[in-house]
Amino acid sequence: MFTGIDKVDWTSLRHAYGSAEDVPGLLRGLASADAAEREVALDGMYGSVHHQGNVYDSTLACVPFLFALASRAEVPDRGAIVELLVSIGAESAGPPAQAAVRAGAEAFVPLADDPCPGVRRAATGALVRFLDEPARVLELLRRRLTVERDEQVLPTLAAALGLFVRRHPADAAGAVELLAAQSGPPHSPGMRLAALGQLALGAPERLPADLVPAAVRLLRERSERRAMGPDRVAPDTLVGRIRRLRPSDEEGAYLLRTLHRALDDRVADRIALLVGQLSSPDAMDRCNAVRMSAGLFREWRADFSAPVSLIGAQLGQLEDQLRDAAVSVLAELFGLAAPAAEEMHALVTARPDLWVHTWERGRPSLGGPLKGLARSGDPRAVQPLGQLLAGPVMPAGLGFEVVHLGPAAAPLAPALRHRLGQVPLDSPGAAELAAPLLAALTALKDPAAVPEVLRLLRGAPDGLGAREALVGQAVRALDALGTAARAAAPVLRGLLDTRHAAPAAGALWAAEGDVDAVLPTLLRELTHGRGRSARTAAERLGRLGPAARDALPGLRALAGSGRVWERTAAAQACWRIDGDPDPVLPVLRAAWSENPYARGAIAECLAAMGPAAAPLRDLLTAELATARRHTARPGGYGSHDIAQDERLLANCRRALASQ
User: Fold this and answer.
1) How many Cβ atoms from other residues are within 10 Å of residue 545's Cβ?
2) Which residues contact 36 (CB under 8 A, 6 or more apart)?
3) For 500, which DSSP code?
4) DSSP tag of 18
5) 575 exposed, middle or buried (CB, 10 Å; 0-12, 13-18, 19+)?
6) Where are the alpha helices (DSSP H) in 482-531?
7) What pLDDT score does 245 carry?
8) pLDDT tens by residue, 539-555
9) What's the chain's Rg over C-alpha atoms?
10) What is the pTM of this model?
């Protein structure tokens, strides 16, 4: 197995943490008779030699020895070694790694018939990925189907056939026929589900008309037949921890995940499938469904009230893993979590120990159930949040969640002010402590907060990085307070020659309404400021309205050049100053298409424009008709801020209603 291993100059090779001199020990550890030693060795391979999927020169040097290990029947856990080889040869690893594994691909042929089910499971897909003989590969898979009896291996054969269909479309007909045959009786429910998922990915025309009800029925049958063996305690290694984080029924998760991926934009079918999963009497099925739901909610727009209600029902279950998965999903849904508000409130009431999450390192944070209740806008979150504010340790970020409660959070204002008054200004972490409190008080527009905000502005000592961040946050809070912050005017004037000039001028205008005091500063920042400063100046000039007419030449110049954010802010300011939509609407139309992240601000502006925005009606109607969230990308890529997307939709509706 290790012939030639000492001839390799491992000290000259590298892995993620430097010299690869420890790699021979890891390779030998994979062949150890001691299970814990094998696990530690596999941990080291993934942790350094193949760290986060990366391939190093030492990784390539390991490939021949990994093949030798996988081919020796006396080596335990060879399935994990084959999985490692497949991962090293993945397309994302690059051509050298693919070539290295492909060069040894003939070794996968006998491994596909190995007596060990774990080896067969890993080797079937490897045949398709690395053996460059499609006809031979298909025949090997066909023959394996006729003799395979292990119900954990059979679905991997279906996955291999599906991969074959996608990789070799010219030779796919035979594989499609095999999958179609496996998708019906008398085959096992797991195999039929696997075959349906692969047909959905590669040959959707061969799917039954009742796909979703059939899949739910098969899922129930599979759950009833699933053998419940004793749980294996995973060791405390990287690989062991990953295994503990996986769903208990990993195969079931994969089967349904494949179907969801294949259904893609058939959102109604995916919701029906999810409802079927969440209604299962089997807790593992429900847990898999909860975890799968997060991607659907983040990427697509639809009426999700039915699955959200069913996810809420999991909060009362005794299984910690199921409850925690449901909490994790609901906490990211914001207003969409409202159908589960009763269950979240019940959990918050019954389990005060879940109000705060304590980490191994760092400050405690707000617990998921209370966070989800607050983000859903439910006023019943106010009372427990108030208790935490009055307690000895305030969870990090609590104030950011108060924002979602709107005016209902007004009773929290005194406690928020008190906490803000306790922020130590000489601490480098002052800005981090103050930010969530300021965000909450800003959202509440609490006039009584002005003295504490002024304390931040006046008291933070120079020379600390925290001061700059504190000043920016405090100025934004004063801006929101308007005339209630008139007492802060002298301090704001003192900031007009600093890097905070534009926001300070905006806050000064909100406090006093004196155009002459702020217009020169804003014109200077518009013309000579860069990036964020020019954009902020444009935004503040727009708020001055017709009084800022002198800024129109500079704003029009900015609207015709620069980055999309500056162009958009300048165009909006032009509209607010002179009310002429003609030069503004083309800029907004171009920005809408160029950068989806700008659509929220544009839609808000169009709603304020009313009938003048009618020429852009097509953008609004198209957005509302689009099923995918505006910053999501096919395949699940891109930002998935659900709250941001829901605000965009609300502004689109408001803009259309105003025309």
Assistant:
1) 14
2) 235
3) T
4) E
5) buried
6) 489-493, 501-512, 515-528
7) 41
8) 999 999 999 999 999 99
9) 30
10) 0.86
